[in-house]
Amino acid sequence: MVSFSTVSSASSLEHRKPTLYLAGDLGKSACKFLYWWQDREFQPLWLGSDVVEGVSDTTLRKFDAAGDLAEAAWLKVGDSTVLVGNSAIGYGSSFAADKVRIAAYQVAAALGLAAVQAGVKNYNAVVSLALPLNEFRYRNDVAAKLQEIGQEFIFCGRQQQCAIAPSFYPEGTGLYLLHRKEREGITATPYTRRVVILMMGHRNLSVLVYEGGKLNANLSQTSDTLGFWNCFKADASATGIRETDYNSLLAALTTDNAQQLSKVEGGLKDFGIAVAAIRQGEMKRLEAFCRDNLIDLLVGTNQTDIVIGGGVAHVLRSELRDYFTSLGLAENLYFADANGGRLLTLAEETRNAHGDLARPIRFADAYGLAQALAGKVRRG
């Protein structure tokens, strides 16, 4: 079994300073955060995932007039200037970079934004973060980098200092916490069933297996080869779609509207064939993965719940429901956004949420971690 790691105890922080609380899912498609302070409600933050280090100070001038700091975020750490989020697009960010290399900058930018909203510049920060299981061993490195940055940094021209107490959880933990809370609320009894979490992300697929309320690390894993983006590119290329039209194809896939503007053709194009190929390709790979890795967990007397999250889960919701129904699991299948409620409201409050129908399920992991952290704070 895995015991989760709290690198620094919140109780050791200086209580005379204000405290910001932050929960985050550092996804490759976007970083999802919820932050709050004192008795405030959760504040949602949608931040682009791109990070570029070592840009020139001259580059920052183009962001001086930006109205939304989340769209023009930058940090100054020592002598290095770092662009974070959409401000970094076009400056050579790496898709393949491990989160350990960029996570601290993403978190620092989120804290910077939260601090601006709270009107503070010298504060404590209690942080809960999700990391892919195959990068979890680097959590102490991320913590060390965070604590180094927190000693002094500049966020969008504003000097900041913060003592950061980070805790780390395998990606998908928030989905389990939400599911367990919901089931215990219905049954009014401790929830100890086996639960398989499928976190279908942009860069990888994470599988977490919980037994008796604890993570079984031996049965859990992360697969980079089943990440959405690599599969998407392979299937798109096989159907003749050029990279220039990837954004249009992605829109066709996520909105169920096959007619999209094509840069290649200079007008409307029907992407229906490519959309069908991507859906079929994703499910073919997933079914093969499940045969090799999940079927054994479903055989026997232990009742197992399947909880699915990540943006891909929204796109393939119908196909996923059909597949698990064929395995006799229709009554044991749950999607992370099924209950909606506050999760739905928070997701809708983020930037450009109206065009992203998958936004609630993409926010679920961070929301689960935020609820757990808030519960700890209330209990003292």
Summarize the structure.
With 380 residues, this protein is an alpha+beta fold.
Which stretches are poorly predicted, pLDDT < 50 over at least 5 residues? 1-13
> Number of helical segments?
11
Helix-residue proportion: 25-40%
Mean pLDDT: 89
Radius of gyration: 21 Å
Secondary-structure element order, N to C:
EEEEEEEHEHEEHEEEEHHEEHHEHHEHH
Q: Name the beta content range.
A: 25-35%
- How is the biggest beta sheet arranged? 10 strands, mixed
DSSP strand count: 18
Distance between the termini: 26 Å
Structure description:
- With 380 residues, the protein is an alpha+beta fold.
- The chain contains 11 helices and 18 strands.
- β11 and β12 form a beta hairpin.
List the helices and strands and how they pair.
Elements: E1 5-6, E2 19-26, E3 31-37, E4 43-47, E5 51-53, E6 74-77, E7 80-84, H1 99-118, E8 122-131, H2 139-150, E9 153-155, E10 158-170, H3 173-187, E11 194-200, E12 205-211, E13 214-215, E14 221-223, H4 228-238, H5 246-255, E15 259-262, E16 267-270, H6 272-293, H7 295-298, E17 304-309, H8 311-315, H9 317-326, E18 333-335, H10 342-348, H11 359-378
Parallel strand pairs: 2-8, 8-10, 11-17, 17-18
Antiparallel strand pairs: 1-10, 2-3, 3-4, 5-7, 6-7, 6-9, 9-10, 11-12, 12-13, 12-14, 15-16
Overview features:
single chain, 380 residues, alpha+beta, ten-stranded mixed β-sheet, six-stranded mixed β-sheet, 18 strands, 25% strand, globular, disordered N terminus
